[in-house]
Queue: 3 jobs
Job 1
Amino acid sequence: MTNDPEERERKTITEKSAGSLSASTERWGIRSVLFEQIIEIVDPEPHSAALNMAVDEALLQRAMAPTLRIYRWCQPAVSLGYFSRIAEAEPTAAGRELVRRWTGGGLVEHGEDITYTLLVPRDAAFFQYTPLDSYRMIHERIARWLSDGGVSAGVAPSSAAETSGACFVSHVRYDIVTGNTKLAGAAQRRTRWGLLHQGSIQIGGARHDAIALAGTFATRIEQTEISESVWRSAEEIAQQKYATEGWLRKF
């Protein structure tokens, strides 16, 4: 038995081998997944916009393996990319919670979407892919997952003309689309800890099984809850960074 308190807190709910993956992953074959194993964070309770961003950062600092987190919002919110201008974001937010992400990209409306984060530690082989390739590979698997759930989806081969700063008004190369309509987009940041990939899937409030999504990325899945030390760190990061006016109004 481990002496690590965080490891003792971990509750392993399920681990799926290649022989017991979701039906969709089995159809694609084992080579279609990105990782041998992924940790899926069990986080069913909704959080404030600032805390959601802070949890992602706290998890990234401690990531020892590829990690997937799907999360919810206490109230409708709008997140803006790191370099977005606050003056352009406030009219879109229209009284909703507004938060600046650590990743780039445009304005994203949250509440009815599926919001997820994929974390990849720096020493993982996947970290060596270029940002564009990693973006494509992640979205190819999410598009297949959506298609298996009955949502027509594919990866855009090229960018559409940009018409505004709103992320889902137009798509860029390798976003997920149905026809010319954008279904899912994401933004990335690479740090000394690893890759932070934050994404939003806008499918009209429909919910997909998180295990099925994790199964498109890895041959084995381990579920775990967020440890107390990560919560403490996230609350501190939220208070000192994401919930501050200085961070929100950087640009």
Job 2
Amino acid sequence: MDSGSGSGSMSDRAVSEIRQRVIHGDLAPGASFSEADIAQRLQMSKAPVREALAVLRRLGWVEVIPRSGYRVPPVTLRGMQDLFELRLWLEPEAAALAARHGARRPEQIAALQEFCTREEEGSGEDPAAWLTDHYRAHRRIAVLSGNAELERVLDEALLKMERYHALDVIDSAAGSGGPESTHRRLVEAIAAGDSAAARDLATLHVREARDRAVAAVLDSEALRAVDLTSLGQPSGLPDAASQLRSA
């Protein structure tokens, strides 16, 4: 086992590896574990793992179970909606800034254009590969914004979205398309330096993705089997019978 002293490099590696295990379900939603469990899995000493878990707790990737260890947060519709809401605040501005500053980073623009070409040629046949490519493209736009704090926050949101795709909560390849795809039009707006169009297209793209995701979740077989009466009555709302009696 590594005898790491809790240095930044080892704890950074632990953060990355634990997060990837959460994204891909190796640490499943609701799973509990201890610091020692993770140290053994990663073949690291406890010090960098302890530091990593403290970071991941602050970022919402793990939860503390008092006197017991840690737990992976559940995957919920509310959590997914919150992430889309955050993306709706951040991505349009990132796209607008990318259009303003993109000319300084032609290699990033070229990489985005290559992504669009791969998408249009049907590279989405491998959902896992398409998913990685898709989120990498969105991160490139954040990089092009030139705002390091915006890039950092958006990167976290996009990584958490990957968790929903990797667990098949959302169809991974949904939305990949032809030459008139929103991705292509968004990249063209950024390349042209059109901040207004880039902002509008990023808003449209995130809204389309949100609507597809919510529809996919609501159409899932698991939800079809839920007994709605078991959910109870929303607090503060009178039941139908009492409303009739008081009419």
Job 3
Amino acid sequence: MVENQDFLLTDCPMPGLERLEARFHGHAYDPHRHETYAIGITCDGAQAFRYRGAAQVSRAGQIMVLHPDEPHDGHAAVPDGFSYRMIYVDPALIGQALDQEGAGARGLPFVPDAVSRDRAMAALIGEAFADFPGKLDPLAGDALLAGLADALARRGQPERRRPAQVPQRALLRVRDFLDAEFARPIDSADLEAVADLDRFSLARAFRRSFGTAPHRYLVARRVTAARSLIAEGTPLAEVAGACGFTDQSHLNRHFKAHFGMTPGRYARLVAR
């Protein structure tokens, strides 16, 4: 098979939720990690990846659950390649769906099996992609989040942690600040001022609630914005400056670490 048969389609139908559909033959992704839960299904073929120190293979109809900040890669496990659908979900939304006080009070569910057969999860993913890449109705989006949260809780257990000592409102202010100001330089003093907390308490509490560190969340916002501009055909040098990266090599390094491929390869895949 040749690379021009590979493709990748994504959309963000609601805040904190992203859908992806792709096909790959041979190599797909270099090692990378997301700040989100990644919940998906292999539609045909088989894909292999390393996750939490072990080799995994997901075959047609099997479900994958990857946790925030866990490195993984990806490649075809059969000559004909594989296709798959994936939903990326902000951990805070999962926490909110499970506990009205937020993830910090209850803890995020951890699913030990990266690959499994799960009819309920398969049905949820099928519904989420029924009109892809068309619009996802807001009510359908809310139902999807609730269903995924329940499925994760059913499959796993909350991570063990000490009770959160930081007010959730302070963490939400920090996250909103990072969402709004990602394109400019941000340091720890900025976040301390927003949260009225010291940087170390903030870093620990932010990870408990959102599944990743403040800096990784900031970089994720930058590379996500960069991906949208790249898909629109914006030159990479312009993308780097517009999204808070010091130069194009800085963009390339973080984009590859986050999405498992270079910005140039991504641009070629989405252009087909």
